[in-house]
Amino acid sequence: MTTPAKKSGTQAKKKATSDPYRDRWISCTPTEVEIRGYYFPWGSKHIPYNTIKAVRSVDMGVLSGRGRIWGTANPGYWAHFDPSRPSKKVGLVLDLGKRVKPFITPADPGAVEALIRERAGLAPGEPGGRSPII
Fold it and tell me: How far is CA 111 from CA 38, 73, 99, 108, in A?
């Protein structure tokens, strides 16, 4: 009787790095955006590109994103867990055509925005705007 072969460390890393973009909290796979740390206590949200209606780059301030590590003070937005958000200056708001819009802070927001626009078939965006109170 044979036993299934275990994946070597390099095979597992190859799968993890095959995504066009991946940081600690955000992955852009070929089919979706994965937001780790979105749900309590560490659940991920998976958003297929074809469900994204718009993406907006926003400049963050203390009350408009940088001061919030997780959650929201504004019921129209939800910020995933990101303990390094206070040191970041730009976030992305994803419009899914629903009441609550995910607010994400990838390590490279320009790369993530470009990938989302390309894969969701969205037109180029306006330069960064002001973030809502999060």
Answer: 20, 27, 26, 6
pLDDT at 73 over 50: yes
Nearest-angstrom CA–CA distance, 42 and 32: 18
Q: Does domain 20-122 have CATH number 2.40.440?
A: no
Q: Where are the domains positioned within the chain?
A: 20-122
pLDDT at 15 over 60: no
State phi, psi for 116 to the nearest 5 degrees: -65, -45
Name the pTM for this structure.
Answer: 0.83
Edge-to-edge strand order for the sheet containing 129-130? 77-79, 101-104, 90-95, 54-59, 129-130
